[in-house]
Amino acid sequence: MIELRDKRMTVTGGRGFLGSHLVRKLVEEGHCRHVQVADRPEYDLRDPQSIASMFQQQRPEVLIHLAAVVGGIGANQSHPGQFFYDNAIMGIQLIHQAWLSKVEKTVVVGTICAYPKFTPVPFREDDLWNGYPEETNAPYGLAKKMLLVQSQAYRQQYGMNAVYLLLVNLYGPGDNFDPRSSHVIPALIEKCLMAVENGQDEITVWGSGAATREFLYVEDAAEAIIRATEKYDGAQPINIGSGKEITIKELVEKIAASCGFSGRIRWDRTKPDGQPRRLLDTSRAQAALGFRAPTDFADGLRKTVDWYRRTRGSRRP
User: Fold this and answer.
1) CA end-to-end span of the chain, whole Å?
2) pLDDT tens digits, 175-204
3) Could you give the CA distance from residue 122 to residue 284 in angstroms, rounded to a whole number?
4) Contact indicator for 12, 34 with CB cutoff of 8 Å
5) pTM over 0.70
6) 165 CB-near residues (< 8 Å, 6+ apart)
7) For the chain, what are the domain ranges?
8) C-alpha 254 chain-centroid distance
9) Helix (H, G, I), strand (E, B) or coil at 4
């Protein structure tokens, strides 16, 4: 248990999608008065000298590591080497420097992509090592998974208070809507709005629609991270999710309806589905953090679409 209010905190990736929501929530709700951001262009977290400079300048007592190179199936398939190297090297160097700098607490945010491809549903933290991740995003998932190994190893050898969270796919206002690199929800929202705008009577979606996914509203994810930072000091990873799954087919239909697209949905079965099912067992988060995701998916999706409609013109190239 740690009292955050007067601690010096650094959030890596604090200008990103999740990071901006987390920083705002920390400040506006009074959890921490001294929140700093470690992000580009000031800091390149792949560079050990830049990391050392950041620790010297910001002197964090609490570190939350969110910075990551992320994307959907297409981006993972196109850039597997980059996704592995950038995510591994950032995390490994940050955790090591946090230990050298005697940071009081380090919170590392991992990913559901670390789970084996055929994990029994719902995914339990104890199943994390029972197989190889789904091939399309394995380099990313394994890079992030190594940070759990490092956190536990440093705890064992050095007594470092490093905790690890496994997050599902996030969505919400402020997400990345670039179709070249976005995840499924923002990519589908943009596709449907473009179809409406251009008078298209058909859209094409990758895969069969049979795969399932679990989604967590970004504000709920920020709340869970704050609770873990304040309350959890254990060595075992914690799943952070909504505990609810939806098929991609159902997801596409809901997004199409929210965007006003009523045309045909064509499934391109030559493209991969990715992992067959994704659903987390969130009982550890409920027991350790008292966290249960409060945002209903329909409400979160509506807020996301409404936000993007308002800001879309200023964000498109």
Assistant:
1) 45
2) 999 888 888 999 999 999 999 999 999 999
3) 12
4) no
5) yes
6) 107, 108, 109, 110, 224, 225, 228, 237, 238, 239, 240
7) 8-171+215-242+277-294
8) 22
9) coil
Q: What are phi and psi of 264, to 5 degrees?
A: -80, 145
Catalytic option among 140, 154, 164, 217: 140
Instruction: Name residues whose C-beta falls within 8 Å of residue 97's C-beta, 6 or more positions apart in sequence.
Output: 48, 51, 52, 55
> Quick one: residue 178, left, alpha or beta (phi over 0 = left, psi -120 to 50 = alpha)?
beta
- Partnered with residue 109 across adjacent β-strands are 165
The predicted-structure confidence for 105-120, as pLDDT tens digits, reads as follows 999 999 999 999 999 9
pLDDT by residue (tens digit) across 39-92? 999 999 999 999 999 999 999 999 999 999 988 888 889 999 999 999 999 999
The band of 316, judged by pLDDT with boundaries at 50, 70 and 90, is: low
Are the CB atoms for 109 and 87 separated by under 8 Å? no
Mutual orientation of helices 184-198 and 297-315 as an angle, nearest 10°? 60
Indicate if 85 belongs to the active site.
no
From residue 99, alpha-carbon distances to 8, 55, 94, 102, 160 in Å are 16, 11, 9, 5, 7
Q: Prior bond to 122 cis, omega within 30?
A: yes
pLDDT in tens, 150-166: 999 999 999 999 999 99
What single letter denotes the amino acid at residue 95?
I
Residue 147, CA distances (Å) to 53, 123, 221 in order: 21, 19, 19
Q: In terms of pLDDT, which residue wins out, 72 or 280?
A: 280
**Could you tell me which CATH class the domain 8-171+215-242+277-294 is placed in?**
alpha beta
